[in-house]
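User: quick one
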Amino acid sequence: MAVIAKKGFDVEKLRSDFPLLQTMMNGKPIAFLDSAASSQKPTRVIEAMDTYYREKHANVHRGVYQLSQEATTAYENARELARAFINAPSAHEVIFVRGCTEGINLVAATFGRRFLDAGSEVLISAMEHHSNIVPWQMACEDKGAKLKVIPVNEKGELVMEEFERLLSDKVKIVAITHVSNTLGTINPIEEIVEKAHDRGIPVLVDGAQAIPHMQVDVQALGADFYAFSGHKMFGPTGIGVLYGKEEWLNALPPYQGGGEMIETVTFEKTTYNELPHKFEAGTPDIAGAIGLGAAIEYIQSIGYDAIHAHEAELLDYATQGLQQVEGIRFIGTAREKASVVSFLADGIHPYDLGTILDKLGIAVRTGHHCTQPLMDQFCIPGTVRASLAFYNNKNDIDRLVDGVKRAVAMLR
Amino acid sequence: MSINEIQDEIIDEFSLFSDWMEKYEYIIDLGKQLPLIDEKYKDEEHLIKGCQSRVWLHAGLDGDKVVFTADSDAVITKGIIALLIRVLSNQPAEEVAKSDLYFIGRIGLKEHLSPTRSNGLVSMVKQMKMYGLALHAKN
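Assistant: Done. Structure below.
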């Protein structure tokens, strides 16, 4: 199966598309294993943005002149690419935002304003990134609503029986991550959506860590809102997508006020523009959207089947390699897992391990990964996290394993 | 010895290391040595929070001199703390307050004192100087 899926997949050829992977860190060729924090960019994305600024830039949706029309077409073409990419029913359900964080904040703030009150509840999980905790906390504080948390078991999986128990009629929305940034756990979104919808409760999915690794079909998932960032899927920083079902987006009040989002403005009363413009106040990140469009085309040119097969092989290889290190402990051992390896070496602080790996030219993330409540649950200060993308190869993993062995020998 | 004399001494010592491995092995050794702080001071009040590693700092007076003790949960951070204490502890409060810690850059450890590193060391140095200032004023 893996062999069939990987037909035509040439990791070395793909690596040459990424200028940054050819650079050095601390005098050594970089082994970049921090793609879950932010991925590197292929030349195609960089060039799309460069060409836009050199040849096509003007403000969108405003000018009658040809250049502005062309910029508008390019921007709206990116929206259509994003729509098809996640199989959204229509392009006006695709809102361009700064990133996944802004997408969640948009929903939390506007949904909170319209639908939360004292006595209502928002249901999240214990493995959420701070960006899917804090916006809801803020919305709850505003209205005197309560934040409820689905617990996680020792393997790093959601306790589904608890989810069902917590899903009461007080719950106004469920906000859940598709893939955990710290543990790699892939959550059963379809099942969560189905159970929530049985009670008429909408579901927001934080897709930041899913979109670089798997085909996302918002209709198949049934999610009411789905947010993701461009920079984690080989696109530029500062751009992301919030998908929302039309009926929900229409039911929410606007988030920010300004140009573009209005229909008519008088000092007495403003009426708002239609979707998606209602939620895109001000001049948008046009170049970012075009870069995101290029990233989508790039991913599609490789195909998620090949990406998944390669990453699954690397994840196995990394897990087996690290297992040889004495006193290694993996944090996050869910059955359904994306290519993230979070670990600790017995008696060694993640900061120390990360520092030595840095000197060896190996880029990993250390710390709590913006999931402090999760770290508290496992009673650890943080982890070392190696997160893989399709452009990683076995050499990167060999260097990681050798580096960890060397660091452990120095630190123990 | 004055603060700057100690800094120059450390720079000399580090010039003997031929690569980063030797340098870090030395810092790790320093970090592994006995606790640098009385256990009773390892509490919330003395904690300097960093996103990556945590640091505890206590300052006392011995005559007109400030005596620092500190600790960290990460051994490399702790090794660097040992160097900072060697430079700043048992020095007149006024000298601590106006010290310029150039040795960190010269021995190639500047990145550990970068605010982006978030290991508590930047806040610790700030705190040490503030203690110097406060204790000097009190005297």
